[in-house]
Write a structure and sequence with these properties.
Number of strands: 13
Low-confidence stretches: none
Strand order of the largest sheet: 4-3-6-11-8-9
Mean pLDDT: 86
Largest sheet: 6 strands, mixed
Radius of gyration: 20 Å
Helix content: under 10%
């Protein structure tokens, strides 16, 4: 059975069954402590971020709400559809702390949120929504992620420090149909 809303088709039913055979394994004790954060994920909360290393990504969809199926709405980041691997939206410097504000500028498609996904570099959540220090959607300020949901009227402020890779990478809405419709952008990490 499929459930459809304006932008999503969700299968509801059994996808797989797992059959376990053989003798049961002995119970495992819970760990006494968890390993610490790896050194490449240093806390960026108190980092100074110059204006030149700050950037904003705004998801934008016009038209709609649309019924399920074509025609599909055009989708953009900062007013631009994905333009291919050479269409760099922003250049960032390696070993420089970046601070990005991710928000929904306009969405008439009926979508409830656009999960922001950053390839290659994990980011630390600095703020979700309009109240500093407040978490949202099972995410807490200070956590490290590679994807953060961005609901309407609740921007996310993130920080990260690219330190191991130079070249192009991608940011996009983590809803596959949305990135397919243009909601993606190229980021260039330079020396």
């Amino acid at each position: 059975m499929c459930i459809r809303d304006r932008n999503t088709v969700v299968y509801e039913g059994t996808i797989a069954q797992i059959l376990i055979t053989g003798p049961p394994s002995p119970p495992m004790p819970l760990p006494g402590h968890l390993p610490g954060r790896p050194p490449y994920l240093a806390d960026l909360t108190n980092s100074s971020v110059p204006l030149s290393e700050q950037f904003g990504f705004m998801f934008h969809t016009t038209g709609g709400p649309y019924p399920a199926g074509p025609p599909y709405p055009p989708m953009f980041i900062n007013g631009q559809p994905f333009g291919g691997e050479d269409a760099v939206m922003v250049n960032v410097s390696i070993d420089s702390v970046q601070e990005w504000m991710v928000s929904i500028d306009k969405d008439e498609s009926g979508s409830s949120n656009h999960p922001f996904h950053l390839h290659v570099n994990p980011f630390q959540i600095m703020q979700i929504g309009s109240t500093p220090g407040e978490g949202m959607l099972d995410m807490r300020v200070g956590e490290w992620r590679d994807t953060v949901p961005v609901p309407h009227f609740s921007p996310a402020r993130i920080r990260f420090k690219p330190d191991r890779f130079t070249g192009t990478t991608m940011v996009h809405c983590h809803m596959t149909p949305h990135v397919d419709l243009g909601m993606g952008a190229v980021v260039n990490i330079t020396q």
